[in-house]
Amino acid sequence: MDLKELYRDVILDHNRRPRNYGRLEADGPAVLHAEGHNPLCGDRLTVYVRMNGERLEEVRFEGSGCAISTAAASLMTEAVKGKDRAAVAQLFGEVHGLLTQHDAEPGTHLGKLAALSGVREFPARVKCATLSWHTLNAALGRGAATRTSLSS
Ligand code: ZN
Description:
The chain has helices spanning 3-16, 67-80, 85-100, 126-142; strands at 31-38, 43-52, 55-64, 146-149. It is α+β, with helices and mostly antiparallel strands and 152 residues long. β1 (31-38) and β2 (43-52) form a beta hairpin. α1 (3-16) crosses α2 (67-80) and α2 packs across α4.
């Protein structure tokens, strides 16, 4: 199995069986959420985060979108759960590089997130893959219900 097939299988698997799917009931100010919308494709999702100090203790998402947006959101929740804000910000930077720089090699520490590098062969779908990350950022950044639109 070559790398492209492996990446495709990861995306298909996470689209079929999204991890951490569903809402996180607000039970205090420690639960943050934000809504994201990618009008280019029609993807809509809501990301929920329960914080424990600086750490993302629980991360969930729900919504509807294409296979790439769903798989990317699922992979993101697995990757950021348990990390602190600073680590998540760094990871976001690496994922963004992976999706936008053609020669970026996925570091082995990225694990399954490396599968997202397959998306950069389809530039129109990059926003599908980054929607969940931008939405997570919005949730973490403002600490209240916000809307993110990737229309620019
Ligand atoms: Zn999409």
